[in-house]
Design brief:
This protein is mainly alpha-helical. It contains twelve helices and no strands. Helix 3 packs antiparallel against helix 4.
């Protein structure tokens, strides 16, 4: 079945045909589809790329290493879609990629996806002796992202800071996060970001 779906993607002769074929392949959630879905990320077809990302996220952990192995050779567009896939999977092996993208990517949609992804890292999959340092690095990046000029990135960073502080194993930096959330709640120029920060602050204080 998966082979037929893969062949349909490879033989698609129109944008719509490719989109439909990728949707069907993504829905199969087959590990054998991973190389083909990753290849689709490099096509100039955003709809197909979205479906490929969804499929890779659904497959989850088995897709992480193939994504990481391909990242350096990607054109920018494919790399941006790969960041979205890694953000959605939440495997800590993608942490360095997400940290860099959240802080430095020029596309706000990629910074937003990376910031959100930093709030969904499955820390229990990381060696325990590495977690504290990795979480502290993540908090610094998210604090930076919370000052992003684009409000959607700040909003994503606030939600991720809440999740991160709630999962902290050595919360030395938790007070800095709470202080920053208070600053955002009272001073951000966008009302939805202020409201999100207030909710995050209250949940952390009460939880």
């Amino acid at each position: 079945m998966a082979l037929e779906l893969i062949r349909a993607v490879e033989q698609a002769d129109s944008s719509e045909g490719l989109l439909n074929a990728v949707k069907a392949l993504a829905a199969a959630s087959s590990q054998s589809a991973i190389p083909t879905l990753i290849t689709v990320l490099g096509y100039n077809n955003p709809g197909a790329a979205v479906s490929a990302v969804d499929g890779l996220i659904q497959i989850g952990e088995p897709a992480v290493l193939p994504l990481l192995e391909q990242l350096d050779g990607y054109n920018y567009g494919a790399r941006a879609w790969a960041v979205r896939a890694l953000a959605g999977i939440g495997d800590p092996r993608g942490l360095d990629i997400l940290l860099d993208a959240a802080a430095n990517d020029f596309a706000l949609s990629v910074r937003r996806a990376a910031a959100r992804g930093l709030g969904t890292i499955c820390w229990e999959l990381m060696p325990s002796e590495q977690i504290a340092e990795a979480q502290e690095s993540t908090s610094k990046t998210l604090l930076q992202a919370s000052q992003d000029p684009e409000w959607v990135v700040r909003y994503a960073a606030v939600g991720a800071l809440q999740a991160l502080a709630g999962a902290a194993v050595q919360p030395d930096w938790r007070s800095e996060v709470l202080t920053r959330l208070e600053e955002i709640a009272s001073g951000d120029e966008t009302s939805s970001v202020r409201a999100r920060a207030w909710v995050a602050q209250q949940k952390l204080l009460l939880g």
